[in-house]
Amino acid sequence: MKDPDHGDKPSESGASAAGRSDGSKLGPRNGKGKRKRRKSSASPSAIASQSGAAGLAGRPAGENETEPARKRKRRRRSKSAKQQAQAGSASQSSGVQVVDASLGERKGHKRSKKAKHRRGLQGRPLTSGERQPAQQRGADGGGNARQTSAAGSGQAGAQPRSGNRGEQPRAPYIAASEPPAPLYAALDLGTNNCRLLIAQPTRPGQFRVVDAFSRIVRLGEGLGASGRLSDEAMERAVEALKICASKLGARTIRRSRLIATEAARAAENGESFLERVASETGLDLEIINRETEARLAVSGCSSLVDRETRSVVLFDIGGGSSEIAVIRIGDSRSNRLANHITHWTSLPVGVVTLSERHGGQHVTPASFEAMVQEVEGMLSRFDSPPVEALANGTSGSGFHLIGTSGTVTTLAGVHLDLPRYDRRRVDGLWLTDDEVSAMQARLLSWDFDARAANPCIGPDRADLVLAGCAILEAIRRRWPSTRMRVADRGLREGLLTDMMADDGAWRRSRPRRHQRGSNASGSHEGNKP
Questions:
Q1: Which domains, ranges and CATH numbers included, belong to the chain?
Q2: Which of 297, 355, 421, 459 could cross-link to 467 by cystine, CB 3.0-4.6 Å?
Q3: Is the entire prediction scored with pTM above 0.70?
Q4: Which PANTHER family does the record cross-reference, listed alphabetically (predicted)?
């Protein structure tokens, strides 16, 4: 098709290089369909060469004149990438990490101002409080080595990144006049367990646990039949006590008390065993009598007795003995709950001794009832006020039971269907009389393997838990109550409470450790197991 003024008319899809009436020429279309103005002095061939040099994106891929331009653009990009890679490796060798946000982006995409801003933040050198490159984090394989702060505080651990750029986190304020809190330690070597607590006083009547240890040693295994501690049982106990000795030796303890209970008290070789413990571990344990054991159990649970409670029957089902205390609280309540004990007894039976006599692995309803009746016979000789007198003639709202033993904590864990035992959810839990009966019936319906598979029981207690339930059932029949409170505490807590009270640790006015609003990460509190 002919144009009378300019010759051949280009096709509709092509780009025109013909002049316009205003003397300017239009360049080829770009990717957005717009025309670029060219100088009128440029010839069509010059315009074509310039457009090829610029690598115009609007050209169809099949045109021959765009091939050299695309190759040149690829070479420039490759060269730029190599230079940036060399710069990155040089920065890493100098200890400064630089991140280029443009690497890995698709070609032809433009970055917004916001993206450029992010690139600048990522590319700044890391400060001393931030995470360093992998080459400088140590040779632990996991990059877990920590850098000390530039201020030289001496505290290990990476500093948290501050909210403002370039600003270092402030250390928490600690009163210069504050003396270090004293540490107290309590160790209880029982018939079944070896337990240790290291704590420091906080608010009146309370303390914070700094370190703890607990292990099932079964020191009283076979004691009922032979009357002596076996060599295997003593060896297990000594190994556990060595761990306790290392924990005590690693800290400055102001005051400690280390006790042994029924197994060492009843065994013929109990005294010689404690001499061996002193020579091999350096720990001097004392054998306490049953009255002291009952008072310590009450002292450890004093914070679980409500103000409106008028009377309580507290029981501690142990491995070789079970302590029961009747507590009656009048109008004037003492700071020490043990001062309100009116009657107490210690039954020479526990979960270990009872399960060995009746069998703990395969328990039937008949054998379970036989265990209950044996304990009921022991309780019948205990002179205690009737439950009506304990309730002060009311409907029973002023009277309840408190159980502090592995038996009641196990029942609470099974009742809550916990995937693993959690002391925070168990300690202080209230259970109704119907709930306790339902949990005992549930455990009695399980065989040994089912009990061992439960996460709140485990294989170590699977043969002991039903013997503990039998002792609990005898106590419930003697003192019927509509509710029972669970206490995951015992002799260790009682020992700590008495020592801190004797020292007046809660009477001293201690300044606040940190200013209000200081950084919580700087707290010097110990781990709470």
A1: 66-102+113-121 (no CATH), 184-288 (3.30.420.40), 297-492 (3.30.420.150)
A2: 355
A3: no
A4: EXOPOLYPHOSPHATASE, RETROGRADE REGULATION PROTEIN 2
